[in-house]
């Protein structure tokens, strides 16, 4: 498998940085939130977690924004996505609900 070119990765990194800058700063979130409950784009607790073809779970609004900007690659790996279908991650959603109920 051929490694992705550096330039597309740099472009993806810049776009991802832009999305993160628009999100709540990490200092505003509690440090006890399990990492699996945080969107890797916004670093915020997810409300509507979805799985992408890269196998990662994202907050729906964040990944939709990424895709709406014309990206066809994973925001984390830079690899070309075979599909942009978003699949609800019901397990993580349920775990987040349980976590919130305990807070």
TrEMBL record:
InterPro entries documented for this protein: Ubox_domain (IPR003613), WD-SAM-U-box (IPR052085), Znf_RING/FYVE/PHD (IPR013083)
Where is the U-box domain positioned along the sequence? 32-103
| Organism domain of life | Eukaryota
For biological process, the GO terms are:
protein ubiquitination
What would you give as a GO molecular function for this chain, any one? Answer: ubiquitin-protein transferase activity
Fetch the Pfam families from UniProt: U-box
Q: What is this protein called?
A: U-box domain-containing protein
């Amino acid at each position: 498998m051929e490694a992705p070119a550096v330039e597309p990765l740099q472009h993806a990194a810049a776009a991802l940085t832009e999305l993160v800058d628009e999100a709540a700063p990490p200092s505003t979130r509690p440090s006890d939130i399990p990492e699996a409950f945080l969107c890797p784009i916004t670093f915020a607790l997810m409300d509507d977690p979805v799985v992408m073809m890269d196998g990662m779970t994202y907050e729906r609004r964040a990944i939709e924004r990424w895709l709406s900007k014309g990206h066809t690659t994973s925001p984390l790996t830079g690899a070309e996505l075979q599909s942009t279908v978003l699949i609800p991650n019901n397990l993580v959603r349920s775990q987040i609900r349980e976590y919130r109920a305990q807070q």
